[in-house]
Design a protein that fits this description.
The protein is an alpha+beta fold. It has twelve helices and twelve strands.
Length: 304
């Protein structure tokens, strides 16, 4: 990008990327009312030169350099939501690259370091960004992943500074069940609802799932299962339980279970009742009859 250092005779010295738009269209000066003192692709050079010539010509010196003004303007346009683990951009994925390109040169700060938004960093962000689960019009990246990529570039890294981090940084994905419980609590489901109403809701969603299966509608199938998980989460919470703990408890019961598939359903293997020992008769005694009769009495008693 070419930067022009201009002089409006008797008025001021400034910098612009578009002489016609800035001086003629916006301010009304004709080409005979100003001169170009210098031009450069280097914004640092042109910013320092502007301050130097403002002093030399006796004009009012800008409190902020041209580079600082441009950077501030870009940052105001691209308001980032930075947390310890992620940086969220106010754009969907399909509009992310264009907006990042408009903001080249700005500094991005997070808990891992400070980075200059370059073309290479812009490409990395676009390639690795994900749609926000809270707002599809926003997208985000993981800060640690970006920092590791910057480190891998060595001297070509866009990182200005790497901040000290603990030896191990655990990146935890949001717990969707906690988000569901928060959502339900904010809407008064736990204060005003009960297990009976949630069970009725579960049966309704079960009907939706049945219809999706009959229609072979995959989208409705996914939606119905998701809705049922939301209801089950709330149903458990109303009883002071966590649905994930209920699932773990159920798995602990079935994990060692054996059985077989019967007509498309898994049928667990039942342990057979042990057969009693029937002793053969001993010649000349009534021993075997006494033992067998006792065994029969025991079985009859257990059956009753």
């Amino acid at each position: 990008m070419k930067y022009y250092l201009y002089h409006i005779f008797g008025k001021k010295i400034g910098v612009t990327c578009d002489l016609k738009d800035r001086l003629t269209r916006q301010q009304g000066y004709g080409y005979k009312e100003y001169e170009v003192l210098d031009s450069s692709d280097d914004i640092d050079y042109i910013s320092k030169k502007e301050i130097e010539l403002q002093k030399k010509y006796g004009y009012k010196v800008d409190r902020q350099s041209y580079k600082e003004l441009i950077t501030k303007s870009k940052l105001n346009k691209m308001v980032l939501n930075v947390t310890e683990q992620t940086t969220t951009f106010p754009y969907p994925l399909n509009k992310l690259k264009g907006n990042l390109m408009d903001s080249l040169g700005v500094k991005m700060d997070n808990s891992f370091g400070t980075y200059l938004l370059t073309n290479d960093l812009c490409d990395w962000i676009v390639k690795n960004a994900k749609t926000s689960m809270f707002n599809p019009a926003r997208s985000f990246i993981y800060n640690k992943a970006m920092d590791e990529w910057c480190k891998s570039l060595g001297s070509k890294s866009p990182a200005i500074e790497h901040k000290n981090q603990p030896e191990e940084v655990v990146v935890e994905a949001p717990n969707v069940y906690d988000l569901i419980r928060q959502w339900a609590d904010e809407r008064g489901i736990y204060r005003n609802g009960d297990t009976k109403t949630q069970f009725v809701k579960l049966m309704e969603e079960g009907g939706e799932l049945g219809r999706a299966i009959l229609k072979n509608d995959r989208d409705e199938f996914i939606d119905a299962i998701g809705d049922m998980m939301v209801v089950l989460t709330n149903l458990a919470a109303l009883e002071g339980l966590k649905v994930e703990d209920c699932v773990v408890s159920a798995y602990d019961v079935i994990k060692s279970r054996h059985g077989k598939m019967v007509n498309g359903t898994f049928v667990k293997e039942e342990k057979p009742f042990p057969k009693p020992n029937i002793y053969p008769p001993v010649s000349g005694t009534g021993y075997s009859h006494a033992v067998n009769n006792a065994t029969s009495d025991m079985l009859n008693t257990q059956t009753l």
